[in-house]
Amino acid sequence: MAAELIGMLAERLDTAQTTCTDIPSLCDSHEFDIDDAYAIQAALLERRLARGERVVGVKLGFTSKAKMAQMGVSDVIVGRLTDAMRIEDGDTVDLARFIHPKVEPEVAYRLCSDVDLDDPLTDIESCVDAVAPALEIIDSRYRDFRFTYTDVVADNTSAAGYAIGPWRPVGSVADRAVRLRTPDTESAGSTAAILGDPVQALHALLDMCRRRRIPLRAGDVVLAGAATAAVPLVAGITECEVAGLGSVTVRGR
Ligand code: OOG
Ligand code: MG
Question: What pTM was estimated for this model as a whole?
Fold first, then answer.
């Protein structure tokens, strides 16, 4: 796909986000493959960086069957997090910032060293020093959250916001109960839903970042993907609790 078209589609997604206006699937009007989709995502990120935002991490999507089934997609995807998306634990978030926000319970890791993508012996687990419960806010720029696999990659995997609970020194978080409570819903799941064990998300991430040349730097946050299906983010308190790790909240307003 021509660079000009990539830039135009990135602009369309960017404007949808900055003006809180949904758009139809890009695939309705254009044909593009997964490489083009990541190129659009990269151009979208460039626009954010040009506005003064900073990259603070990465996120994985569709690492759980619940999410794959909910969205009709069956392969892991990667997106980028910027400082403008960060919400402090317990903080209020203005719902008017979003088009149709949903929230999902996640596990976050923190990188303690840069990851060498070109060294085949890189041990990603040794590049991580902390783990925490997390909430991700997703806000697809597509009408009614309806998108194809390439659409959602181009749209930076619906990334819109995230909050991280207290960090703990990294250790196994396999098979931990996960609870998501909003004023309207309560859902329960397990960290086992995330590729069997969230640590597998780190290995999937390394593979994706090698293929897509996405740098992984010391201090970056990694969202491992949702443990349950996403639910609407509404006014009031939303909490994600991961057994043995603690909890994190945001307050919609
Ligand atoms: C795409 C983002 C998926 C996850 O945790 O699986 C995701 C979407 O569902 O809109 O963040
Ligand atoms: Mg997510």
Answer: 0.97
- Ligand 1 atom at minimum distance from 68 CA: 6
Identify which of 225, 198, 222 has the alpha carbon closest to the alpha carbon of residue 56: 222
Tokens 């659409």, located at residue? 151
Per-residue pLDDT of the chain (253 residues), as tens digits, is 899 999 999 999 999 999 999 999 999 999 999 999 999 999 999 999 999 999 999 999 999 988 888 888 878 999 999 999 999 999 999 999 999 999 999 999 999 999 999 999 999 999 999 999 999 999 999 999 999 999 999 999 999 999 999 999 999 999 999 999 999 999 999 999 999 999 999 999 999 999 999 999 999 999 999 999 999 999 999 999 999 999 999 999 9
Nearest ligand to the CA of 229 is 1
- Name residues whose C-beta falls within 8 Å of residue 2's C-beta, 6 or more positions apart in sequence: none
DSSP state of 227: S
| Domains within the chain, CATH numbers bracketed | 3-252 (3.90.850.10)
Residue 85 CA to ligand 2 center (angstroms) comes to 13
Alpha-carbon distance 122 to 241, whole Å?
Answer: 31
Structure tokens at 65: 């069957």
